[in-house]
Amino acid sequence: MSKITFNTAFLALFFLLNFSSVSVFAQINPLSATKALQKIEHLQTTGSVLYIAAHPDDENTRLITHFAQEKGYRTAYLSLTRGDGGQNLIGEQVREGLGIIRTNELLAARNTDGGTQFFSRANDFGYSKTPEETFTIWDKEQVLADAVWAIRKFRPDIIVTRFSPTLGGTHGHHTASAQIAMEAYDAAADPKQFPEQLKYVKIWQAKRIFWNTSSWFFKRNGLEMSKDSTMAIEIGDYDALLGKSYNEIAAQSRSQHKSQGFGSAGSRGEQTEYLQILKGDLSKENAFEGVVTDWTRIKGSEKFITLIQKLKKEYNPSMPQNSYETIAMAYREVRELEDSPITQKAIEDLKQLLYTASGLFIEAIIDQPNVVNGDSAIIELNIIKRINTPLYFNMYIINAGKESMQLLTDSIPPLEVNKMVTFKKKIAIQTSNYSNPYWLNENQTTGMYSVEDQELIGNPLSESELTTFFHIDLGIKTKTNFGVILPIQHKYTDPVKGEKYAPLLVVPKVTARFLDDVVIFADEKSKKVKLELLSNTDNPVSGKINIISENKNKEVHFMPSPSSIDFSFSKKGESKIIEIEINPPKNNQNDAFLVELNYNNNEAKTEFAKSMEKIDYDHIPYQAMFPNAKVRLMRAKLEKKGERIGYILGAGDYVPKALEQIGYQVDIIEARNLGTTDLSVYDAVLTGIRAFNIQDELAIYLPKLHKYVENGGNLIVQYNTAHRLVTQDMGVYPFHISRKRVTEENAKVTFELPNHPVLNTPNKITPLDFEGWTQERGLYFADSWDEHFEAPISSFDTGEESQKGSIIIAKYGKGNFAYTGISWFRQLPEGVTGAYRLLVNLISLEENK
C-alpha cells in the first residue's frame, strides 16, 4: 500500500475532483423508521429560521422544536457566547472548561430538538447590567461581524431574538444580543459591510426579524404586553409519529443544560408563543408570509419535486431498499440545482436515507484514547451493508494530518449482504496541532476569543485532522458517487455503559501538571510543590524543563530550586514527580510559574509544557483542553485561628482545596451523613455554593446545623439562588436572597462597620485587600434580613445604589452564622490575597460569651 503526500493546493484540487460532495459523520448509521419518515416529510420544505441570544440556555427550545420538528424548517441557534462566565453545578470546571461543557450541552440540545448551532467569538466575562457596559468589554465590531457571518452562511428566511433590543431589566448580554441581531439583519445584506466574508459567502437579506416575547419581559419593566402588536403561534401540537408533543421534545432539549441545573418537565397540551416584529414587513397571521417555503423557490427543481413526492408516497420503513433508486435519483437531481444551504441540507438528508435503505454501518476506530504526533497507530475501519442494494465503495484514504494522506486500498470488492468487512493499517501520525478547542489556541481578552481563520468562526468545535475518506458509488444508472469523511475515534467498552465512542485526542509527547493550582505562603518559610511529568508517546523521549516566572520580564520574587531538571522516559505512561522548593519574598506578592520544555535539550525548540485537563461527563462526549502548565504563587501576610473545618459540598468549586492550602484540615461532609456526623469537632462548617439548591438533606438536618451554631460553632453559607431552595429557613434568623450583585470587580468597598471582628481579627482588612479581584465582587446578595444580622461591608456598581448584602453575620447562642454572596470560588483560584484574608476572618469569628 502506498503513501501519498499532498501540498495544500493539490489537496484542495484532489477533493474537488474526487469528493465532489463530501459529508462528515461520526459514524455512518441507518436512521430509525420514525426518523426516516420524518426526514422524508421535512424534505418537502425549504423554510429557515435563525434564533439569536447571548448564552447557552437562553434559547427557547419550544420555538426551535416547533420550527425544526413540526415545520421541518432549517433552524439554527446563534449563541454569542459559550457560557464561560457562569457557574457549574456538575463539577469543578469554570471559565474555559465550563465553556467547553456548555458548548457540548448546546450540541446535545440541538441534537434533541433538531436545530443546528453557531457561536460568535464573544467571551462570557460574567454578569453585565447594561448593554453599554457589555460593549465596553466585547469588541462590538467583531461580534457584529460574526452575527453577519452566521446570517450569510445560514441564509435564514426569518430571524428571531430571545430578548428585546430596548427593554432592560435583564442581563446586559441579553439586550446586547438583540441589538447585535438588529444591526446584523441589515448589515448582512450590505456588500460594503465585512466584504472579506464575501470570498466564502454571499450577502443575504432575511425577510423579517422578530422578538420572541412574553408577558414576563413586560412585567419586569412595569409594562403590559399588548397582544394586538404580536403574532401568536400555537406550538403545543402532538406528533403521533414520535409519540410525543413538541413541548415534550423541547423539555428534553432544555434538560441537556445540566451544568446549569435546567432539567425541565415536558408540558402537554396547548401552548402559545408570541413574536413581535422588529424589522421587515409585518404579518399578523404567518411569520413566513411572503416567503416561499417549498421547492418552487429553487429554479429548475421540478423533477426533484416529483421525485420527493414519489418518495413520500412509496416509502415503506420496513423495506427501505424498495425506495433506494428513488432516493438515489433525487440525490442526483438535487446536486444539479444551485448550490445553497437549502440544497446542501437536502443532499445530507438524502445521503442518510441512502445509508438507511442499505442498512449501512461504517466506523473508523482506534483502541487508544490519544496519540502523539510522530507515533504510529493501528486504524481499523469496519463496514457492513445489511440490505441488498447496489451501493459500493471504490477507495479508502486515511488522513493522518492536514497534508499527509495514506492510501489504504484502491479497490474494494462488492460487499456481501450482512457480512462485516474490516480493514486495518498502521499509520504514522503527522499533525502538529493538539486537540485543543480552536477558540482557545490564541491569546484571548476578557471579552473576546481570537480566531483568525474565517471558516472556523462560528463553528461549535474543532475539526479533526485524523480522518478517513472514501467514495460511495450509488451503483445504478444515476452514475453518481460522493465522498464521506469519518473522524477516527477511540472506541471502547465500558463495563456499565457498554459500547462508547470518544474523540481521538492528539496530545503532546510529554504533559506536565502541578499537583496544586495555587500555593500560598503565609510567612517567609519555603514550600515544596510537586510537578508531575507524564509520557504520552510509545517512543523514548528525553529533554529538559525550566521553571520560569510568568512575569519573566519583571523582577522575579519567588525563587525555585531546582529551576532546571532533566527528564527521560522509555515508554508511554511513565511519569515522574519532581519536587521544587520555592522561597517566597518578604512582602505580599503574586506570581505564577510556567514550565519551559525542550526535547533532546534542543534550546532552539523550546515550548511551554501543557497540562491535559480532562472533561468527562456522561451526557456529552469526552473532551480535553491543553492549557500551559501553571502554578499560581501568593505571598500573603495571613493569620488564622482554628484548625479543622467541615465542608458540605454544593456545586463544584475550589474552596476546600484553597482552605487546605492555608493550612486547615478540611473534612468533606456528605449532606446525607449529617445525621451521624459529630459537628462539635469543627471550628467552622461551610456549605458550598448552591448547596441549599441541590442538597435535599440540608432541609432535614438544618436544625442540627443551627444547634451547632448555638453551641459555639461558626456556620458560613456561601451563595445560593432563591430559585428552588430546599428550604427557605437556612438562616438562624430570617433573611432573603435576591438577584442583586456587584459585577465591577474593582468596585469601591465601604467598611460600614469598621470595628466588626470580621474586618479586624485575625487579619486587619484594608482597602488593599479588595484590589486585584476577578470578574465580580459577588452575586446573589441578601437584600433584607432580621435585625440580628449585621452587614459589615457594602459596594456598588457605577450609577447604582450601595449593596450591603454581600456578607451578613448574626450571633446565635455562643456561635455565629454568616451568609456570603462573595464569589470565593472565583477569587481563591486566582490567588486574590484579600479574599483569602477575609474568608479566614469569617472562619475565625470568636465564640460569644
Automatic annotation (TrEMBL):
It comes from the Bacteria. Residues 1-26 form the signal peptide. Keywords: Signal. It holds the Pfam family PIG-L. One of its GO terms (molecular function) is hydrolase activity, acting on carbon-nitrogen (but not peptide) bonds, in linear amides. The keyword Signal applies. This is Putative LmbE-like protein. It comes from Bernardetia litoralis (strain ATCC 23117 / DSM 6794 / NBRC 15988 / NCIMB 1366 / Fx l1 / Sio-4) (Flexibacter litoralis).
